[in-house]
Amino acid sequence: MPCTGRFAPSPTGPLHFGSLLAALASYLDIRARNGRWLVRIEDIDPPREQPGAADAILQTLDAFGLHWDGEVVYQSQRYTFYEEALQQLIRLDTAYRCRCSRKQLRTRGVLGYDGHCLQHPPEITTDVAWRLKHTQAEQQFEDRIQGLRHYHWAGHEGDCVIYRRDGLFAYQLAVVVDDAEQGITEVLRGSDLIDETPHQMELQDQLGYRRPRYAHIPVITNREGQKLSKQNLAPAIDARQRQTLLLQALKLLGQQPANELADASLEELLLWGCQHWRLEAVPAVLQLAPDGTPLGAPVLDNIQPDGSAPR
Ligand SMILES: [Zn+2]
Fold it and tell me: What is the total count of domains within the chain?
C-alpha cells in the first residue's frame, strides 16, 4: 500500500501559522517517502465556518508550494458515506440515542458521558444525538512524536457523540470514514486532536477499517499554555513572507536547515525539507516566550507569539 497522508483543515478562517506547521510537517513526512498527499476540507459544521475560507486556505497552500495530489475532497459532499457508517453502527447496536444537553451534563457533573440515555432511552424525535458505545475500556497507541498513549474509560465515559442533536455529523465519524475511504496510512496533525484518536480507533475497529499510524506535532502555545488558533484570532499568514516563514517553520519542526539556505527559494527549501526530513527531530512540546522565541529551544527568528509573521 502506498503511503498516503492528508491535510484536513476546517474552513473556520484563513490558514494561521500553526496550521501551516501541520500542513508542512504532513507534506514533508509523505513526500520524503514519495507518497501521496491529499487535502480534505472539513466543512460539515456550517455555524463555525467562514465564507471564502476554504478557497483562501487552498490558495495559501498553493502559494507555499504545498501542492496536493488529486482533487480536493469536501466533507459537505460526502454525507451519504457518513450516513452509511452511522447505519452500520446502529445495526451493530453500538450507536445509541442521546438527548442530554450540555447543560444537563454539566448539572450532573459528567465528564465524558455517564450512560444516562442507555438506561433511559429518549423518545424518538428529530433533535436526538447518537453516541458511540465503546466496546473496549482501554485503548493505546504509539504516537510517532508523542510516544505511547494510554487511555482508560470507566463505565460509559468514553462514549462520544457521532451524530449531533442539531442534525450534523460529528467530526469523529466523518474523519474516520474519510481517512478509511481515502486510503490514509499516515495521520499527522496538531496535538490538540491527540485525545480524539482513541475514539477514532474505536470507530475504526467497529467499522472494520484499517488503522492509520498517528503523529501529533506540538501546538504552539505561549507560556500560559494558550494555543494559537483562529479562535484567539491569530492573524492569517502573509504569503509575501513565504521564504522566511517556511524557514522558521522548518526550524520549529526541529529540522536544521543550513545557513546557506537563508536566501533559498521556496522550491529549494521544500526540496531540502523533503531530502532531510527527520520526524524524530520534531519536538513534542513547543512553547514560545512573549518575544516569540521558543522556550527551552535554541533562539530562533522572531515569530510573534500570536504566530504572525515577524514585523
Ligand atoms: Zn444522554
Answer: 2
